[in-house]
Design a protein that fits this description.
Layout (H helix, E strand, L loop, with lengths): L14 E5 L17 H18 L4 E5 L28 E5 L10 H7 L5 E6 L1 H14 L4 E9 L3 E2 L5 E2 L1 H12 L5 E3 L1 H13 L1
Parallel strand pairs: 1-4, 2-3, 4-5, 5-8
Antiparallel strand pairs: 6-7
Helix pairs in contact: 1-5, 3-4
Length: about 200
């Protein structure tokens, strides 16, 4: 997505929705991380900084796993937000127990009450909670955007021993979502939209 293809993406403030950016994502139990993970987190942090500077809404999504062995389970360090993504006192937090932020939460009701604002998603994992949430956002008719370079995932081992590299899983997940459930764009371009939209 480039500025020439769409001069101003948002005619009103979009909600930034960072997903599951908690300490648990660094646990080795997930396997080999996408080598671009540090860049993806830096891009997500840049989005968060831009949204805060513009005074646009931020809704942090946190995963509260019900599995006893999960690093995302409440009551342990893994459940806490990573320091770079800790919510400010004036920012909302939505806690979920499944991969989709729409299941078992009031997310849809919040968005309907806010007159269906545009949504910009980032976070982890691309092919899990991010994709599950973005697909539902699109199916429910929301104007969904995904910062493709502000997400990442891990290698996936199948039962037969085959391993799918994280970079491939990430790319396929983005391809699945783009154009049908959301519009995938670069974080830097979305950051620029906060300034462009405020001038329009």
């Amino acid at each position: 997505m480039s500025s020439s293809s769409l001069a101003v993406a948002f005619v009103r403030p979009a909600w930034l929705v960072p997903i599951d950016l908690q300490n648990a994502i660094d646990d080795p139990c997930w396997g080999v991380r996408d080598p671009h993970a540090p860049t993806a987190e830096a891009n997500a942090a840049a989005l968060l900084a831009a949204w805060r500077k513009a005074g646009w809404p931020v809704l942090h999504v946190a995963h509260d796993s019900t599995l006893a062995t999960s690093p995302y389970r409440p009551g342990q360090r893994g459940n806490e937000f990573k320091p770079a993504f800790a919510p400010l006192p004036n920012e909302s937090v939505l806690r979920k127990r499944t991969n989709s932020a729409f299941i078992g939460t009031d997310l849809e009701a919040r968005l309907r009450a806010a007159k269906a604002p545009p949504l910009v998603f980032a976070g982890v994992a691309t092919n899990n909670s991010v994709e599950a949430t973005v697909r539902m956002a699109g199916n429910l008719g929301f104007d969904a955007w995904l910062a493709g370079d502000a997400c990442y995932t891990h290698d996936k081992r199948l039962a037969d021993g085959r391993i799918f590299p994280a970079a491939d899983l990430h790319a396929v997940a983005l391809a699945n979502m783009d154009g049908e459930y959301a519009r995938v764009a670069a974080a830097a371009w979305l950051v620029a939209q906060t300034a462009l939209s405020s001038q329009s």
